């Protein structure tokens, strides 16, 4: 059982769940005057949305390791689980069970909320994770873009959930003449965080490809480090880190104009510090140990940025 939990990467799954609850909790407080103190983040339906998303991510981790057994034996032999501790056929069984349950939840959520979005996004994610692990991961740029897009869908999914609820049940009765302005805010928030997650996850994928060159060569993968070399891959990573830092400029402008209190920007400051550390490390000579540090630093950058809503929530309450 312990090997199964290692296989699905529980820390990453907890980050996904915490991110969704962070965004949901913040939106609940923002809309508190309009929904009679009924926190949607505490409902069973929102829990189902979170658990289905986590299940698809867990299934994606399993299938990714399933197709990467040969490469992992070279890149990280001490962390290889499939075929060493868990048989390949059982890995496939676990993968499809998780996806089947998650897709069933998506159908249920789609029916009760009268929307096709949950089914579409879940089905898209399941298939993309399969094709990514089987083939797209080894293609130039496309694999990085796909996995970054799927990461960006996490906050967007929360935005869709809240938009649907507020549009169909709440705000159409309270603000009939300003419906779009109020119901689109969850989408704007989800999309903004999604863009942040997309850029950072893309650069993380490039850094991971730089770490995994030896194993990827065995699989004949066409990653950026293999096709263009480590120096150019590092340059691309540096550009993306700078772009991620530039994404905070609109929030800083709101702060400068007095719309946001300086204390509310504390997580953004931590995120900027972590991104700066990543940038400094990228400017130095590429070594396996340094690449691991960059990977961890980029993950912290993303975590601080995605937890910004929950920090704002704590300030509000």
Automatic annotation (TrEMBL):
Q: Which Gene3D superfamilies does the annotation name?
A: UbiA prenyltransferase
List the keywords (alphabetical).
Answer: Cell membrane, Membrane, Transmembrane, Transmembrane helix
Span-the-membrane segments of this chain are 12-34, 46-69, 90-109, 115-133, 140-162, 182-203, 235-256, 262-284, 296-314
Q: Which domain of life is it from?
A: Bacteria
- Gene Ontology terms: cellular component: membrane
- Gene Ontology MF, one: transferase activity, transferring alkyl or aryl (other than methyl) groups
Subcellular locations according to the entry = Membrane
InterPro entries for the chain: Prenyltransferase_related, UbiA_prenyltransferase, UbiA_sf
Q: How does it sit in the membrane?
A: Multi-pass membrane protein
Which Pfam families does the entry link to? UbiA
The name under which this protein is listed is Ubiquinone biosynthesis protein UbiA
What species was this sequence derived from?
Answer: Brumimicrobium salinarum
């Amino acid at each position: 059982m312990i090997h199964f939990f290692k296989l699905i990467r529980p820390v990453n799954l907890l980050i996904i769940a915490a991110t969704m609850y962070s965004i949901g909790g913040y939106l609940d407080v923002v809309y508190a005057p309009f929904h009679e103190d009924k926190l949607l983040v505490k409902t069973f339906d929102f829990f189902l949305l979170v658990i289905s998303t986590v299940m698809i991510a867990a299934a994606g981790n399993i299938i990714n390791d399933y197709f990467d057994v040969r490469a992992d034996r070279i890149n990280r032999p001490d962390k290889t689980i499939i075929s060493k501790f868990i048989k390949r056929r059982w890995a496939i069984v676990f993968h499809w069970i998780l996806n089947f349950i998650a897709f069933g939840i998506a159908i249920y959520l789609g029916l009760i909320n009268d929307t096709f979005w949950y089914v579409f996004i879940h089905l898209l994610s399941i298939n993309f994770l399969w094709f990514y692990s089987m083939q797209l991961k080894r293609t130039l740029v496309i694999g990085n873009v796909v996995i970054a897009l799927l990461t960006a869908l996490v906050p967007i999914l929360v935005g869709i959930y809240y938009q649907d609820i507020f549009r169909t049940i709440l705000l159409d009765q309270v603000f009939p003449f300003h419906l779009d302005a109020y119901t689109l805010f969850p989408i704007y928030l989800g999309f903004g965080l999604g863009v942040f997650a997309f850029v950072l996850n893309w650069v993380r994928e490039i850094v991971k490809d730089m770490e995994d060159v030896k194993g990827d060569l065995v699989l004949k993968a066409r990653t950026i480090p293999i096709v263009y070399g480590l120096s150019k891959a590092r340059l691309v990573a540096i550009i993306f880190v700078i772009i991620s830092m530039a994404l905070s400029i609109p929030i800083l402008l709101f702060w400068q104009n007095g719309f946001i209190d300086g204390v509310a920007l504390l997580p953004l400051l931590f995120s900027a510090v972590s991104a700066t550390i990543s940038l400094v490390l990228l400017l130095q000579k590429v070594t396996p140990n340094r690449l691991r540090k960059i990977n961890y630093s980029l993950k912290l950058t993303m975590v601080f940025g995605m937890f910004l809503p929950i920090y704002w929530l704590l300030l509000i309450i």
